[in-house]
Amino acid sequence: MTDHDADLSVDATCRTLVRSAQTAALATAERAKDAWPYASLVETACDHAGRPILLLSDLADHTKNFTVDPRVSLLFDGTAGLAAPLTGARATLQGRIERLGEDDAASRRRYLARHPGAAEYADFGDFNFYRVTPDRFHLVAGFGRIHWVDAADVLFDTTGTAALADHEHDIVDHMNDDHADAVDLYAAMLTPDAGAGWRMTGIDPEGVDLRREGRLLRLAFDGTVHDAESARAMLVRWVSAARNGKFPPDTAT
Hints:
- By secondary structure, this protein is an alpha+beta fold.
- The chain folds into two domains: 3-154, Electron Transport, Fmn-binding Protein, Chain A (Pnp Oxidase, Chain A), CATH 2.30.110; 162-243, PNP-oxidase-like (Split barrel-like, Alpha-Beta Barrel).
- Helix content is 33%, strand content 30%.
- The chain is built from seven helices and eleven strands.
- It has helices at 3-20, 61-68, 105-114, 151-154, 162-178, 180-190, 228-243, and strands spanning 23-29, 37-43, 45-46, 52-57, 71-77, 90-99, 127-140, 146-150, 199-204, 207-212, 215-220.
- Helix 5 crosses helix 6 (180-190) and helix 6 crosses helix 7.
- It is globular and about 60 Å long.
- The two termini are 21 Å apart.
């Protein structure tokens, strides 16, 4: 493996942790003059570039903190289920948080599809959607595998993929309404005990996200999808491969 390939692997690992996460630890600086670090648990989604999306209350301490200082950290933990958690990958994102405008319907849809229970309070007057724009990442991918990575190297370049973003909502609805069996098939090929009732929550240029009863699965494409037509071709190929017992073994993260 070349140094360049290794760098790509590190970058992709950071982005995959963000894309796959259901929750993260949010760290802010307390607004008091001694500015103690303050950490809290938040639910997360992300946009097509891989920037985290959060839904937060104005009444929460973390919100009051970053209103004064918008610098935050998010810890994305990929160690769940490991016998030795410290051998697994985790990434700390350092960046700045900003409130999203009322017109950002795409971010709202992506978040609520991933966390449907949040729809009960998303429209409360004290709740708002936020995006974190990363500055850099700190990846620990096991003992001795430690890297600082610039955000520009981690975020996905969405140039040329606007058509996919524009049709994401339609694609997801179509798969869930008309091809629920295919969605269940993807999940079953990834994990034998998946069961039925999976729903697609999002599609981006690098893969799709599935959800069932609070459990998430991330399926990575073996290429880049740019629009609705290339997405359809990829999803059809997946179904054919799965039904023939040849579902790509490296598509799950």
